[in-house]
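Archive entry. Fields below.
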Amino acid sequence: MSRTIQQTTDDPEIPCQQDNRLLKAISAEIRGRIYPYLKLTELPLGMVLYESGDVMENVYFPTNSIVSLLYVMEDGRSAEISVVGNEGIVGIALFMGGLSTPSRAIVQSAGHAYRLDSKQLKAEFDRHGEMHHLLLRYTQALITQMAQTAACNRHHTIDQQLCRWLLLSMDRLKGNKLDMTQELIANMLGVRREGVTEAASKLQSAGIIQYHRGHIRVLDRPELEHRCCECYAVVKKESDRLFEEFSYPPRQQRPYR
Amino acid sequence: MSRTIQQTTDDPEIPCQQDNRLLKAISAEIRGRIYPYLKLTELPLGMVLYESGDVMENVYFPTNSIVSLLYVMEDGRSAEISVVGNEGIVGIALFMGGLSTPSRAIVQSAGHAYRLDSKQLKAEFDRHGEMHHLLLRYTQALITQMAQTAACNRHHTIDQQLCRWLLLSMDRLKGNKLDMTQELIANMLGVRREGVTEAASKLQSAGIIQYHRGHIRVLDRPELEHRCCECYAVVKKESDRLFEEFSYPPRQQRPYR
DNA sequence: GTCTGTATGTACGAAACCGCACACAAGACT
DNA sequence: AGTCTTGTGTGCGGTTTCGTACATACAGAC
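PREDICTED_STRUCTURE:
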C-alpha cells in the first residue's frame, strides 16, 4: 500500500510528488519539511477515504487518481459535489476547522495519491506561510466548482452533465481513457443508470466517445466540449487561475489574460 | 445610508453589532480593533452587494437582513447557492484569496448589515488569531450549505425545497413574517414562478403559511419542518455547531451532543 | 464449452417540471 | 374614476426524468 517516497522515478507508472500540482507549486523550503512525510498510496476504485462525519486522520494529494466528493442522502440517493484530482487535495475540512465533512470521499478512478498525516498538514498550514495561502486559494476554487455543480444540477440536461463530467475527469488523467461503468457515473451525477446509458449512446453513435463494459475512450474532445454546458469551462478557468498565480518561477508575463 | 455605530441601542429597529452572531462571538480584544470600522448600512431589497467577478471592497455582516448568493448562468437562469443572514458574513472570497467570486450577492430580505472595509477585515484575518479561525470555520459551514443545496437541487421536489427555503429564511429573521414575492423565490430556487405558486398554494390551503402579494407569514412552523426534506436540518445543525464552539464564555458542558 | 455475474440496451407508464398564454385581482398612479 | 403595473391563479401540451421490468451481451471462472 505504501512505499518509500521518491523525488522522481524512472517508471512512468509510479508517480512522483510533483505529479500533484499543489505539491509541485510549493517552494523548496516547504517541500523540505513536507516531502519526508508523504506516503505514496495506492487508491483502488471505490475506496472510501472518508465517510460522512469521519474525523480525518490523513489528507490525500492525488496524482493519477480521481476522488469524488459525494453527498449521500438519507434515502441512499447521492450527488457528486466536486471532483478532486492532481490539481487538489482531499480533506480540506481538516484545516478549515470543522474536522469532519458531511460528505463521502470515494475513489472514482483508481491510481495513486500521496497521503499525509493530518497533524503534519495542520502544522504546515498553521505556519501561515505559502501552504496556508495555497490551500485557502484551492478551497476557493473548490467552492466555485461546488457552486457550479449546484447550478448545473438545476438547469442542465443529463446529456450536458455527462459531457461536463467526462471533461472534468479527462483533465485529471493522462491519456484519453477512463475506467468507469455507467452505473457509477449515474451515482455521481445523481441520476438513473438508464439515463446515463441513453446519453452515452448518443455520444457513442456520434463518434465522440467509445465505451465498452466500463472502459470509456474519448475520441473527439472538441465536440465533447461543444455539447457541454458552460459549467465545465467556468470550473476549469477557476482551477487554472489558481495555478497561474502559483507558478514557479513567477512569470513576468502571463501568456493568457 | 451609514450612521455612527453604537454598541447598543434603545430603538429595537436599529440593530447593534452583536445582532450578527459572528461579530458577537469574537473576543473583547478583537472587538476593540474591529468595531470602530463597522458602518451600519441599510440594505434595500434587491440591492446587489457584489456582481459576479467583482473585486470586493467591503464585506458585510448582516443583522436583520438576508443576502442570497446567487449563481447566474449565461442564459439568465439562476440558482441560489447559499443564504447568509445574521449567522454569517458576505464576502468570504476576500480572505480565501480569490478576490472575487463567480456569484452574485443580492439582498433577499431588506434590513441592515455592518459593512467593513476589505482591508480591515483582511488585516484582522492575517493576524491569524481568533477571527481567522472563526471565519474559516464559518466558511466550512457555508460549504456544507452549498453541498446540501446541490444535492437538494438534484433530488427534491419544489414543494420540499420551498419549505427548506422558508425555514432557512425564517431562522435569519425575527418574527414569522417575510416580504418576498413568489417570482423572487422562484429565481432563488431556480424554478418557474408558477411552480412556486402551486407549492405555496398547497401550504396556504393546509394552513401552514399565509401570503398576500409579497408578504408571507408562517403559521405552523412544525408542520413546515415536517414537510421539508432533510436538507434544512443538516444545514441548521452545521450552523449551530459553529456557534456552539464559539460561545463565550466557554461552557463546561455542552447541552447537546 | 458452460456457467454466472456484470454491464448495457430497451420499453412504457407515471411524475415533475417547463414554456407559454391568459385571466384576474389588488394596489399604485394620475 | 379610470388606467397601469404588479402579483397571483390556472390550464395545456411538451419534454425530461423517473421507476420498474426485462432482455441481451460480454468476460471471467471452472
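CURATOR_NOTE: The mean pLDDT of chain B is 88.
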